Fold these 4 entries.
Entry 1:
Amino acid sequence: MEQSFNFDEIRPYRDEEVHPVLMKLTKEPQLLALFPKLFPDIPTQQIVDFLQSIYTVKDFQKQVIHTYINRVEDKTTQGVQILGRENISNKKAYLFISNHRDIVLDSAFLNSNFFRIDLPLTEIAIGDNLLIYDWIRDLVKLNRSFIVQRNLPIRQMLESSERLSAYIRQTLTERNQSVWIAQREGRAKDSNDRTQEALLKMFNMSGTKGFVENMTELSICPLSISYEYDPCDYLKAKEFQQKRDNPDFKKTSQDDLTNMQTGINGYKGHVIFYIKGNINEEIELIRNQPTANRAEQLALMAELINKHIHLNYTIFSNNKVAYDLLTGANRFATEYDGKEKSAFETYIQIQLDKISLPNKDENFLRGKILEMYANPLINQLKAKDL
């Protein structure tokens, strides 16, 4: 598909735009009010002066974002690890497709740790439903994020998808810049991670060749993200009951903000990323499927990405405890001790106690939290049998 697009509405800011945007942001009352919470040990005016001295995207990411994410990592995790570094080259661009656990921190932790191990940072796909204020949009575009437009009328959605596809392909193939994108719109709140075929259709829109060639041009790299604890687990369980009790229930913008704040500030334990590496050789095999029409190719491609994400989860003891509690099978009982089981059961009760609902169904809520922690293990077991 040969078509020219204007990417200004969705692309990240460039260096020459950084200083004017920061000058505007440092006069934004809502953002100024956040500084004492984000940086309680630094006077607000000192932060303002510092931000007004920044002129490049690299300096903003290094001196502001990386510094802040390091604080979050130190205060709320037992460490963030990148595994599979040897599977990629710092000279090549990749389309990192991952499961999605935390609204903000999945990509933030990834890039902060890429910076630490001297890998080029990725551009980040972010849905515009989260950009509820103009100053949030400005901040994410300063941080190499590009905008995924959602909830548009059908005709506009098609045009937006074509432009997004072209932007991603140009970023990877012409600018040699890696991209991170979640495998689906929104988080899989039950941790049953599946790649949306609509995402793959969008990638294919900008290609000029067959489906397999269009996919291999993007250098797709599945990425598995594992959080030992999800601080938003009780909020996700609460939403499951709200949707069960009221099929028309919709989250508010305030709900999204609460999830973002809880995800950033809550305890996460160990956080581990595993980089599978380029899967082009396996994508090429899709071409040889004897009956593969476009729909089948999309399904095969989605399952290929799912398989690698599932296989490369890090499984923690609480995933095994959750599996045994959920199934009653005690399949993994020899792989954790009584203290670990008791600690996880206590943790679940603490999380359940945070939920306030008029008709609180604690058994249902407990089951949903157990599913969140058991599903990565369930999916990994299935992937190993493929």
Entry 2:
Amino acid sequence: MMTAEPRSRLSLGLQGSAALFVALAVVAILLITLPAYRVFFVISLLIGIVIAGGLALWHRLHPIKDTDVENKRPLGL
């Protein structure tokens, strides 16, 4: 018999898209009500865009070759 994983007391029991909508609503409320949060959000967004762009550029200029991957079939399938 399998037992369910223990839940935290702070868990709301939301999963999937419901949890995503709650998270987006919380961010929207914070952006509207707290001016300092707007600055933090913009700075975080800019840092994320710069890092994502740098990684995309790096992988475009240095693609992974078959010889770079050691174990191509880890499950032996």
Entry 3:
Amino acid sequence: MEEIGYVEHYFSRIGVAAIKITDGTLRVGDKIRIVGATTNFEQIVESMEVNREKIEEAKEGDEVGIKVVERVREGDRVYKLE
């Protein structure tokens, strides 16, 4: 399990997390775990967007929007599972 980024913002109305990628890459289909003070769940990345454009892969430095299955909070850590 490697840390690849963190949650910058959560859009509660649409259930989307804005995630800053700080290390490595993230692809559609990858399994991630989001962990924080009150957050801890896993999910498959079903789609990602940058500026409302669908993308297949995000790399270090990108800020992506990902639909999440549970509420997340700013500062939660994002890990990619093998």
Entry 4:
Amino acid sequence: MEDMDGRRTTVILSPEEDRLLREASKREGISQSELIRRGIRTVTSGYVRRRKSRTGWLELTQREVREILSEDFRDLDARK
């Protein structure tokens, strides 16, 4: 689990959301806070910056990786 030195925030839930969160917490056997953190990670995962692909000294963008993988690597002499 991650370090819990984060900041606190208040979330106001409807009675139905509160009931469902308590029920899910009991069924999963984890705290309501952990369920909320997991939900936040799920929702925000698309916004996480990812590093460029690196192979030793070579840095490639995703587009460059796709181009390389789509190339035909057969022997050029065999094409003649």
